[in-house]
């Protein structure tokens, strides 16, 4: 009753026309051997793996969940076999450097892969999702001998990795963590402490698990400035057991196929990554990758919800629609996708999903460019992608459930699983509230709006290039964003709390604006397609819908930002 097919045609449209990625690859030394046919072949194979291997074990993995016995975790039936197929396909190596055995392909291709994995089976993809971030962290901050030993294991899929930050008393405020590390005579460290909510902290997919652990040295300063990062393998060289054990797994609302573990480090042996007391700087290399991937989780959920809601709406007949296309034969009842209320929901699903795909892939494409401006823009986009995409993934899954009516509330149609699975993405890897603060206070106000102005310049350039009906509204949208940014900057001088009060609305405003930018460009470049190509008409129709209906929310968000000049009451 549930299906997933990778949206390969839309992915190709974004690669070829929206981003013009093949031209950029041809100019980059790192991607000289890559062209569009090869990229499409990779996407096709990734789509086949997702649809044929991962999607069939999504619902069963949710029903079965993980089993914890004697310190060991058994993943749901089929998960270990799927991981072996993933490794045999070379997917862990996709966007890793050839120096360590990787394929050296762009982050853009990896972003498309991640979307497919999360859309087809979020619980399974949690085990592999952090691997690329761990690879980047070790590549930039590990001593050479650690790189030589462990990077090939990550890239080959021989080992999986975790990110161990959270403790019972230290969630978003990592400065409160208590785990300790003590230097040993051989240059290693002994770690003691406990961590919780560790995705993939124990499992049966790989023999070894590489834990990246935040802990304090004995003489460390208080707070977040006194945190160091360590690599702590489950198995030491020679397959010797290390002093780390799983103390239990959580029973959760969703992603039940993912083992969310409590870990105890009892004299575990580890090695320092990066500089002492500067662990957050090293960890953020990993977290930046993770936050982009979490945003792609929201996109994946939206895509799965859209596909299945659309399919169901074309089959389910209820009542007579007020209007129907002339070519449709009269019947006692019409498919519900003819009814205006359902058309509105389905158009919203398509507009947000395809718009988010363009923006998310753009961020990944910016990361592939060895250009400081591109990297600044990617940094600015990351908190928007993480927070806005995951919020929309949950909201759109709920909207899709409404299409199914009562059937959506029962497990038979699995949209209820998509809704449950999507909710966690708004919380982990930095809550969406933290992302909003990061965007406004650090990325916009922190550099006095310079990078934000660069983003507006890109959007204005698109507005000028548009020869259709969307250039003018996009230009006006840019004017509104610039004015709002000025208001926030001015008000922040007078009221220190004001930016925190408006951060959420500012991020949502930016998300809507980026979708406007995405649809203006989509409408312009889709005219390169033949008139006989159905995608051309679909893109133009959806762009028209977005500008007519969804962009109206911009003024609401601006009003909310203005209204927040009034202080919030304190609760007793």
Could you list some keywords that capture this structure?
seven-stranded mixed sheet, 572 residues, alpha+beta, Butyryl-CoA Dehydrogenase, subunit A, domain 2, 19 helices, 11 strands
Question: How is this structure best summarized?
Answer:
The chain is an alpha+beta fold.
Low-pLDDT runs of 5+ residues are none
Oligomer state of the chains in this structure: single chain
**Amino- and carboxy-terminal Cα gap:** 49 Å
Q: What spatial form do the alpha-carbon principal axes imply? A: globular
Class from secondary-structure proportions: alpha+beta
Helix content: 40-55%
Number of strands: 11
Strand content: 5-15%
Q: Note the total helix count.
A: 19
| Arithmetic mean pLDDT | 95
Computed Rg: 24 Å
Main beta-sheet annotation: 7 strands, mixed
Elements, N to C (H/E): HHHHEEHHHHHEEEEEEEEEHHHHHHHHHH
Structure description:
- This protein is of the alpha+beta class.
- It has 19 helices and 11 strands.
- It has helices at residues 8-18, 21-27, 36-54, 58-64, 79-88, 107-120, 122-128, 131-141, 144-156, 279-315, 340-367, 372-404, 415-423, 432-444, 450-465, 471-494, 498-525, 534-549, 553-563, and strands at residues 67-69, 72-74, 159-164, 180-183, 189-199, 208-215, 228-233, 235-236, 240-241, 244-249, 260-273.
- It is globular and about 80 Å long.
Write the layout of secondary structure elements.
Layout: H1 8-18, H2 21-27, H3 36-54, H4 58-64, E1 67-69, E2 72-74, H5 79-88, H6 107-120, H7 122-128, H8 131-141, H9 144-156, E3 159-164, E4 180-183, E5 189-199, E6 208-215, E7 228-233, E8 235-236, E9 240-241, E10 244-249, E11 260-273, H10 279-315, H11 340-367, H12 372-404, H13 415-423, H14 432-444, H15 450-465, H16 471-494, H17 498-525, H18 534-549, H19 553-563
Parallel strand pairs: 3-6
Antiparallel strand pairs: 1-2, 4-5, 5-11, 6-7, 7-11, 8-9, 10-11
Helix pairs in contact: 1-3, 1-11, 3-6, 6-7, 6-10, 6-11, 8-9, 8-10, 10-11, 10-12, 10-13, 11-12, 11-17, 11-18, 12-13, 12-14, 12-15, 12-17, 14-17, 15-16, 15-17, 16-17, 16-19, 17-18, 17-19
């Amino acid at each position: 009753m549930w299906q997933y097919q990778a949206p390969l045609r839309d992915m190709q449209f974004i690669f070829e026309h929206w981003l013009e990625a093949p031209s950029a690859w041809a100019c980059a030394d790192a991607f000289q051997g890559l062209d569009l046919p090869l990229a499409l072949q990779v996407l096709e194979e990734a789509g086949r793996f997702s649809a044929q291997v991962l999607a069939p074990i999504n619902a069963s993995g949710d029903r079965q969940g993980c089993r914890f016995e004697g310190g060991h975790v058994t993943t749901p039936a089929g998960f270990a076999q799927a991981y072996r197929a993933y490794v045999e396909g070379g997917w862990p190596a996709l966007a890793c450097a050839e120096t360590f055995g990787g394929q050296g392909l762009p982050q853009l291709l990896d972003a498309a892969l991640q979307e497919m994995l999360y859309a087809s089976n979020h619980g399974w993809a949690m085990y592999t999702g952090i691997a690329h971030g761990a690879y980047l962290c070790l590549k930039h901050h590990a001593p050479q001998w650690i790189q030589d030993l462990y990077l090939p294991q990550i890239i080959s899929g021989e080992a999986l990795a975790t990110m161990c930050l959270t403790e019972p008393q230290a969630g978003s405020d990592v400065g409160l963590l208590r785990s300790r590390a003590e230097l040993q005579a051989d240059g290693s460290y002994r770690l003691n402490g406990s961590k919780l909510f560790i995705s993939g902290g124990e499992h049966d997919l790989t023999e070894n698990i590489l834990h990246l652990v935040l802990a304090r040295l004995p003489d460390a300063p208080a707070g977040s400035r006194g945190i160091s990062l360590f690599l702590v393998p489950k198995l030491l060289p020679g397959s010797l057991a290390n002093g780390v054990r799983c103390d239990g797994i959580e029973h959760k609302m969703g992603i039940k196929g993912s083992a969310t573990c409590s870990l105890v480090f009892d004299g575990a042996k580890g090695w320092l990554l990066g500089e002492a007391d500067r662990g957050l700087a090293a960890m953020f290399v990993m977290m930046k990758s993770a936050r982009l991937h979490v945003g792609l989780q929201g996109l994946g959920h939206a895509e799965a919800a859209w596909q299945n809601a659309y399919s169901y709406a074309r089959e389910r007949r209820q009542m007579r629609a007020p209007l129907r296309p002339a070519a449709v034969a009269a019947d006692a009842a019409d498919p519900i996708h003819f009814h205006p209320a359902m058309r509105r929901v389905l158009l919203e699903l398509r507009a947000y999903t395809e718009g988010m795909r363009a923006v998310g892939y753009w961020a990944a494409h910016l990361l592939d460019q060895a250009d400081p401006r591109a990297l600044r823009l990617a940094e600015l986009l990351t908190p928007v992608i993480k927070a806005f995409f995951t919020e929309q993934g949950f909201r759109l899954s709920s909207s899709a459930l409404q299409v199914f009516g009562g059937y959506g509330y029962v497990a038979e149609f699995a949209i209820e699983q998509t809704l449950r699975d999507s909710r966690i993405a708004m919380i982990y890897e930095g809550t969406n509230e933290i992302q909003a603060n990061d965007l406004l206070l650090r990325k916009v106000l922190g550099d006095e709006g310079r990078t934000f102005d660069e983003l507006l310049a890109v959007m204005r350039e698109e507005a000028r290039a548009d020869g259709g009906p969307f250039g003018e509204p996009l230009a006006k949208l840019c004017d509104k964003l610039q004015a709002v940014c000025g208001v926030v900057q001015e008000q922040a001088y007078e009221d220190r709390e004001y930016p925190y009060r408006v951060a959420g609305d500012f991020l949502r405003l930016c998300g809507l604006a980026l979708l406007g930018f995405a649809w203006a460009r989509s409408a312009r470049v889709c005219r390169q397609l033949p008139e006989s190509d159905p995608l051309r008409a679909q893109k133009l129709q959806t762009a028209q819908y977005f500008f007519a209906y969804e962009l109206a929310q911009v003024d609401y968000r601006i009003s909310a930002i203005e209204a927040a000049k009034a202080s919030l009451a304190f609760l007793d």
